[in-house]
């Protein structure tokens, strides 16, 4: 096999979507934009495939993450990109979802004038997400957060109606405030440690008041962007009013991007400043998010709003990672490292499972809106007859969100429960199971209505204005939903990937 | 108290004033202004960093410049959204 420098491929993951964005502005005819989209997605798949194939495998030579120094300037002056198992997993997930959603968007926006503005913003958003996962510099991360934030807000505003614009404005203000909290922490960290590089900071970081202040600011800023209860107020409307492919990427990837950063800071960069009480606090908020999100999903009147509230609940599960990282007196350092590694593996699995299932659900909801013109849950009676594929997608993805075997959601919850029991934190088991039950109620409420025969329903609205959608639209949702099933059978792949470069 | 420390402390105070404004004021344009005050506070902390050594450090300067560009873009976007929302709220005045 020819020796290629895998690290030199890393900048391509950022350059390809940026070039795609520029060409989507220059060549703004319908077919040119779709062609650019498909080519960019194909190029991204090739690059990430080449990187994954050439990653050092676990147990052989894995020690250090891949590192690429931009323009040859080493830190602290220059900016580096780096890739370890965790970021490789999230990048692969991004490329996969973006490919499917690009295909879907080609049909979703086929007849919409918003497409001219959609495509450049779409690729800008993808560039921002990829750059965030690759970045190894805390200031560069701020820039990527803002690229993601501005592109995402513009995409939410695409609908152009008042509800969409108001949601976009609130999303923008929340995003700016979160970024500024983060930026102030960057200023404090640079003042104390004189470097912006992840690895150099991790080596220098100590437990002192300024590190605590920085960690607190970073946490508030990123929790605001991740929409953890009680800072979730902006999410349901922003995710619920955006066009379907945008909702899908916002729920599947954008909130995960800020969560990824939180994990980086809490587990690596500022690990010495972390205390058990703080870990527990994040866990309690996560538990509250699970219950609150599920209850609101049950009460939601619109389908997309319900799916968005389910995202609030699913984010709660991600934050259960933090209490599971806690050290105990009797555990040795190697036991603690193994415990933290399995907690991270469980949550990474959760991220992948939720991303695929939620993107599939938003696609299904988007198809329903596309054909009916509304997504009022009460008026979905008998829809299974008209849109069997979309409802089927919704059901499979819902099964994964509830955590029914053999879906990826089941494996993710199983892994999480295992770690919770191993660390003697049984109360999380109760919350995880209750959350699953409440999610099941919310999903079955929709399915129950959808399978009622219209003539049995008292005030059903005949879908007169019903439009047929191209079969490719439900098909791309179904592909994602089936992926959640396939992932349930191949759990080892993901767990092995996480271990790369994660060991001491 | 050195000059740099003074700048840093006042920067953090400005950030606090801005934060209070974002949370306490309902008026959306004032909220946008408050976010800008937050931003100025953060930039002052960076500038204080730059002057704390013997020779000025240029890395914080680069960061502040980047931060200003982002703040301008964000403010412009927020204001254009406000204008658009207002236009939708009062269609009779436009016509």
TrEMBL record, chain A:
Q: How does this protein lie in the membrane?
A: Multi-pass membrane protein
- Residues annotated as domain NADH:quinone oxidoreductase/Mrp antiporter transmembrane: 135-437
Q: Which InterPro entries match?
A: CPA3_Na-H_Antiporter_A (IPR050616), ND/Mrp_TM (IPR001750)
Q: Which Pfam families does the entry mention?
A: Proton_antipo_M
Annotated TM spans: 6-27, 34-55, 86-111, 118-135, 141-159, 171-192, 212-234, 246-266, 278-295, 307-326, 346-365, 386-406, 426-447
Q: Name the UniProt key words of this record, in alphabetical order.
A: Membrane, Transmembrane, Transmembrane helix
Q: Which GO terms describe its cellular component?
A: endomembrane system; membrane
Keyword Membrane listed? The answer is yes
Major location category of this protein: membrane
Location in the cell: Endomembrane system; Membrane
What name does the UniProt record give this protein?
Oxidoreductase
Task: Please tell me the species this chain comes from.
Answer: Pseudoalteromonas rubra
Q: What is the lineage of its organism?
A: Bacteria, Pseudomonadati, Pseudomonadota, Gammaproteobacteria, Alteromonadales
From TrEMBL, chain B:
Query: What are the GO cellular component annotations?
Result: membrane
Entry keyword set: Membrane, Transmembrane, Transmembrane helix
InterPro entries noted in UniProt: NUOK/Mnh_C1-like
> Out of the domains of life, which is the source?
Bacteria
Q: How does it sit in the membrane?
A: Multi-pass membrane protein
> What are the subcellular locations of this protein?
Membrane
Sequence intervals crossing the membrane: 6-26, 33-52, 58-83
Which Pfam families does this one have?
Answer: Oxidored_q2 (PF00420)
Task: Answer whether the UniProt record assigns the keyword Transmembrane to this protein.
Answer: yes
User: What is the name of the protein in this document?
Assistant: Na+/H+ antiporter subunit C
Query: Which species is this record about?
Result: Pseudoalteromonas rubra
